[in-house]
Amino acid sequence: MDELVHLAVADGVATITLDSPHNRNALSTRLRRELREHLTTAIADDAVRVIVLDHTGPVFCAGMDLKESRSADAENQGVQEFPAILQQIWTSPKPVVAKLAGPARAGGVGIIAACDIAVSVDTATFAFSEVRIGVVPAVISVTVLPRLTTRQAHELFLTGETFDARRAADIGLINSAVPADGLDAEVKRYADMLALGAPKALAATKEMLTAQRPAAMTEAFDQMLELSAEYFAGEEGQEGMRAFAEKRKPSWVPDALK
């Protein structure tokens, strides 16, 4: 059978494309499996510096495949496999960019929230629609709640209201909303900026951003000082400082950006 998710690598960017438009890229068993496989491949590929999650059709992702969920008991629901995908994106040592040419709902919004950067067309809409079909946005809350204020989360999770891309950007769910003809350029702008970062430094920075900080400021400074000193003295830090002094791009920058 044809793939429901495709992987293509070019110029250091791995583009993973959801291609199941007949059901609005719903998270079916096959799509979940293929998405995990391609994420694993992209993360392991040393040639990949940035991962872009793209889609075909008018909808980025409609959430879980409700046709599969209707007849399954709690132990066999597809949502049981979903945390692994969100965690894979959240903890990826390589930055992940979501590219939305259309709406996202429920689990699709969870994927967006797990990404480091999210860019949307300004006509896209979003909703945490779970409560309106009698379920709870529980799994996606793990990635979504760190992006929202408590007040915004209560409103949007409890009402299930549809909101537009401008509000999504205002509340921190996405980074920017652009006209459709500017989407490719905006995603490339972010991908190019991310590719300028040193691979190990980017991975360590991602881990730092998502780690729980010690309650005591002194302990937090001690941890961050150790991390900072390690990278100043490390291979990438030394190369970056040499490159700065020599007025050239560091060795890790892709040739296309030099």
UniProtKB/TrEMBL annotation:
<dbReference type="GO" id="GO:0003824">
    <property type="term" value="F:catalytic activity"/>
</dbReference>
<dbReference type="InterPro" id="IPR029045">
    <property type="entry name" value="ClpP/crotonase-like_dom_sf"/>
</dbReference>
<dbReference type="Pfam" id="PF00378">
    <property type="entry name" value="ECH_1"/>
</dbReference>
<dbReference type="InterPro" id="IPR014748">
    <property type="entry name" value="Enoyl-CoA_hydra_C"/>
</dbReference>
<dbReference type="InterPro" id="IPR051683">
    <property type="entry name" value="Enoyl-CoA_Hydratase/Isomerase"/>
</dbReference>
<protein>
    <submittedName>
        <fullName>Methylglutaconyl-CoA hydratase</fullName>
    </submittedName>
</protein>
<comment type="similarity">
    <text>Belongs to the enoyl-CoA hydratase/isomerase family.</text>
</comment>
<dbReference type="InterPro" id="IPR001753">
    <property type="entry name" value="Enoyl-CoA_hydra/iso"/>
</dbReference>
